[in-house]
Amino acid sequence: MRVSEPRIAALEEDEWSDDAREVMKPFSGRDSIFNIFKTLTNHPPLMRRWMVFANHILGKSTLAVRERELVILRIGYLCQAGYEWGQHVLIARDAGMSDAEIRSAKTGPATPGLSDLDRLLLQATDELHADAHVSDETWAGLSELLSTQQLMDLVFTVGQYNLVSMALNSFGVQPDEGLPGWDV
User: Fold this and answer.
1) Are the C-beta atoms of 154 and 70 separated by less than 8 Å?
2) Residue 7 neighbours by CB distance under 10 Å
3) Which domain does 94 fall in, by range?
4) Which of 15, 74, 126, 150 could form an SS bridge with 146, CB 3.0 to 4.6 Å?
């Protein structure tokens, strides 16, 4: 974690405004609520609008779950967002990714033995992170393997999780119980 204490408190349910309670309705009845959401209850209008986009990326993207998680893990690693890394290690494992595949998100596109698609996805993520642009060579390779909508979802996925990583790191969102660390 970038900071050891929250800069913005993760509010408990008894601290939520009426507006925050409304935004949090989809999470009601769960045994636990992630710290990212409890932190965002400090700003319900922002959370409400962000959730629409976040739900597209995480649940309605045209990218296959495995490819989406590889990209999210890579941008989380590049941003050194420990919270993001831990949450998406769990999601990646649920999607059937091995720990070796997860670790390739740390070592990047030069990892030996990657498929062409994985190498290109990791390369595109690196390029977007470094230069806010996918090179012609990487784009051409991806265009042979992905549809136009998948290419668009790829760019927006990297952007979404770059944004989320910035927020998590800057707000000091602390890990939820049981999150894996960098040592996967």
Assistant:
1) no
2) 12
3) 64-171
4) 150
In a domain, 76, yes or no: yes
Number of domains in the chain: 2
87-124 residue pLDDT tens: 999 999 999 999 999 999 999 999 999 999 999 999 99
What is d(CA 92, CA 37) in angstroms, rounded to the nearest whole number? 20
- pLDDT by residue (tens digit) across 161-183? 999 999 999 999 999 999 999 99
| Residue 6 in domain | no
Cα dihedral across residues 118, 138, 106, 70: positive or negative: negative
Instruction: Give the separation between CA 86 and CA 25, rounded to whole angstroms.
Output: 25
Residues 36, 89, single domain; the answer is no
Helix axes 148-171, 82-94, angle to 10 degrees: 140
165 and 78 in one domain? Answer: yes
Whether the pTM exceeds 0.85: the reply is: yes
- The pLDDT of residue 1: 77
Residue 154, number of CB atoms within 10 A of its CB: 24
Distances (CA, A) of 173 to 52, 75, 113: 21, 17, 35
Same domain, 47 and 72: no
